[in-house]
Amino acid sequence: MFLQKLHLKNFRNYAETTLEFSPEINVLLGQNAQGKTNLLESIYVLATARSHRTANDRELIRFNQSDAVIQGLVHRRADDVPLELNLGKRGKKARVNHLEQAKLSQYIGQLNVILFAPEDLSLVKGSPNGRRRFIDMEFGQIAPRYLHNLTAYRDVLKQRNRYLKLLSARKASDRVYLDVLSEQLAGFGGSIIAQRQDFLGELEKYAQELHLSITQGQETLSFEYESKLKNISGRSETELQQLMYQQLTEQAEKEIFQGTTLVGPHRDDLKFLINGKNVQIYGSQGQQRTTALSVKLAEIDVMKAQTGEYPLLLLDDVLSELDGQRQTHLLQTIQNKVQTFLTAPAMNDVAQNLIKEPKIFMIENGN
Ligand code: ATP
Ligand code: MG
């Protein structure tokens, strides 16, 4: 798929702008603080209905304005699909083919993007929270059922934690209600863990291949899903649900004491291994970056396998963070198949690696 056109109104520092893109490589050039990242962000928001850098939609609306609009024309299979996202004081409205979507979860997935920013290079080293967010965002885009389970899980988790706090403070005492919440939580939680394992298995397959090629056969990359839930390996979705319910019940006293839910996908993590050794602990800076790069590039293939279409790739200031060999590898992987948007301060930062003529946009003060 690719994005043919983009229209922005009152998004960040863009007052009003219409752009037509190349289905291949688009280079956004400009000095600092001109609007390069804002433009990539608008494409990301159009695809996922949320920003990669803020949870507060208000920040996306141009100063002193009340609404922002992002419209895009997406070419998918043989169709041109108009998408529209309105961000206003009273929330978001999403339209596909000019029809308002009742739920955002129906909207997400119309346009698939992968964003690679310098902070992604710390996927390996950073917090477990960042890795969970990574799994949830990437997988949520391609699997509506996963997104649904995740939303439901978060709702029940909030209720359950609130109730554990009440029990802890002896302001409530109904254990049957806690049990009902545990059962609901385990239902969604078990599904999430099962789905994450499937997704990560697929991602690992592609990432391994890419990593082997980037490191010229030296390094075998593997993943390990680390769960707070014990004995999860080889379990079916139903078994995982039962297991989670059982372990929630066993830990109930401890959870009441601490006033929070201790078991479940919201506490899980993902470990990366090179030749069997934990990259987070033993890997060099370069190995950690290469791992992040392999994982991101692998997502392109997973999305293609799952949806039948290649996603868009958004690269924000990434080239300058990679050495020559990794830059070449990155650009070779994407050329001729993935519509790409990349930002750079100047053309000579990217030129030597591009096989094809890119379409170049000079960005100055939101224009
Ligand atoms: P760099 O090369 O430093 O990464 P950039 O071109 O990527 O720069 P952006 O992050 O896209 O820069 O744009 C930053 C500019 O956008 C800042 O000057 C900031 O003040 C402005 N900006 C951010 N949010 C808003 C908003 N809601 N309304 C108006 N302007 C905004
Ligand atoms: Mg920027």
TrEMBL record:
What does this protein's UniProt record list under function?
A: The RecF protein is involved in DNA metabolism; it is required for DNA replication and normal SOS inducibility. RecF binds preferentially to single-stranded, linear DNA. It also seems to bind ATP.
Kindly report the protein's main subcellular placement as a broad class.
cytoplasm
Task: Determine if Transmembrane is one of this entry's keywords.
Answer: no
Q: Which residues form the RecF/RecN/SMC N-terminal domain?
A: 2-362
- Entry keywords, A to Z: ATP-binding, Cytoplasm, DNA damage, DNA repair, DNA replication, DNA-binding, Nucleotide-binding, SOS response
Q: Which gene encodes it?
A: recF
Q: What is this protein called?
A: DNA replication and repair protein RecF
Location of the protein in the cell: Cytoplasm
Among InterPro entries, the record links this protein to: DNA-binding_RecF (IPR001238), DNA-binding_RecF_CS (IPR018078), P-loop_NTPase (IPR027417), RecF/RecN/SMC_N (IPR003395), RecF_2 (IPR042174)
Q: Which family does it belong to?
A: Belongs to the RecF family.
Residues bound to ATP are: 30-37
Gene3D superfamilies, per the entry? P-loop containing nucleotide triphosphate hydrolases, RecF/RecN/SMC, N-terminal domain
